[in-house]
Amino acid sequence: MSGGHTSASRALSWVLFAIWTAWIVAFQGLLAPRAGAFTPELGIAWYFALAGRLRWRDTLVLALFVGGVRSAFSSDPTLALLVGYGSFALLADLARRSFEVDGPILRALFAFLGALLFSGHWTLARALALPPEEGVGAFRFAGSFALSTACAALFLPPLLARLPGLGPLWRTRS
């Protein structure tokens, strides 16, 4: 009986996670016209807020969920977002095995590096549709994008992890 209750509460938590993700990504969309190149990738901060608390096998699902919801609010190609978030999750998981990336400084450093990789990945994905001079110009914004994302990852995860309804997703320790 408790197994059914646990799976139902986990399913509800994933639904609430998707709703919170939509709100966070929508907020990023509202912020973008005002912040320009300094708009942080809040999906990375959201990922770091939760990934350390989830079972390792759920982190890829988490990243693909964030990428999928992000694609609904973005003009970036869906496949590029999914591949970017999936790759980020795999690299972050490798880093988590060697470092304590849940601490604020390493979390910000890995978010900075992840944002640089994202920026390069998305720019290359868009470069197929852009004239060459515009594609090169897009790389100029990578530093400010990565810096703002690192700041978001430094300060937001402790707040985001406290959003209601996510508790059943946290890993259980035996």
Brief sketch in words of this structure:
The chain has 174 residues and is an all-alpha fold. 75% of the residues lie in helices and 0% in strands.
Written overview of the protein:
The protein has 174 residues and is mainly alpha-helical. It has one domain (2-169). The protein has eight helices and no strands. The chain has helices at 2-35, 42-51, 56-72, 78-98, 104-127, 132-138, 142-155, 157-160. α5 (104-127) packs antiparallel against α7. It is globular, with a radius of gyration of 16 Å. It starts with a helix and ends in a 14-residue tail after the last helix. The mean pLDDT is 82.
Label this structure with key terms.
single chain; 174 residues; mainly alpha
Q: Could you tell me how far the N terminus lies from the C terminus, measured between alpha carbons in angstroms?
A: 20 Å
Q: Quick check: average pLDDT? A: 82
How many domains in all?
Answer: 1
Instruction: Give me the count of strands.
Output: 0
Secondary structure topology:
Blueprint: H1 2-35, H2 42-51, H3 56-72, H4 78-98, H5 104-127, H6 132-138, H7 142-155, H8 157-160
